[in-house]
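subagent[fold] <- orchestrator: predict structure for attached chain, return tokens only, no commentary.
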Amino acid sequence: RAEAALAAAKAEGSGSPRLAVLLRRDLQAGSPDVLSVAAQVLVPFGGASHRRAALAPLVLEAARARDAVGQMSLEAKVMHHEAEHELHAREIALKDATGRNELATAEVALSRRAYALGETSLSERLLTEIRTADAYRTYRLAGIAYARAIARFNQINGVLP
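subagent[fold] -> orchestrator:
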């Protein structure tokens, strides 16, 4: 809008030359005769300094608008990059947590079997159960964080839930 207002003001110019033709009649005598004809020519001269002064606020507003658009574009690019980076990091964290959870699940199965055979103590088995529970909790939290990163990435790209 600012650039359109500036373009309209520039197109307006300082004006075009005008010609005025005036007729003088003697109406008191009741005669339709023309007593005199006068012509007036109006030619606008330069006025460059006046035009620049009139255009200055519009030029400033257009420059501010271009700057604001550039700033918003840069912020959008940074937000997109951050969302993409976060999504990638959360995906790696989820893969890592999935592997740890699978390993902990296998470890707890082996620990239970060893306890049943009498090869380990109850305290060792319970420590394994605690580690497995922590690994599962970390896995679930990583899944939630990954889902949130997907939602943020989609929102940055204009896809709303």
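orchestrator: received. Logging for downstream: The mean pLDDT is 87. The longest strand covers residues 34-42.
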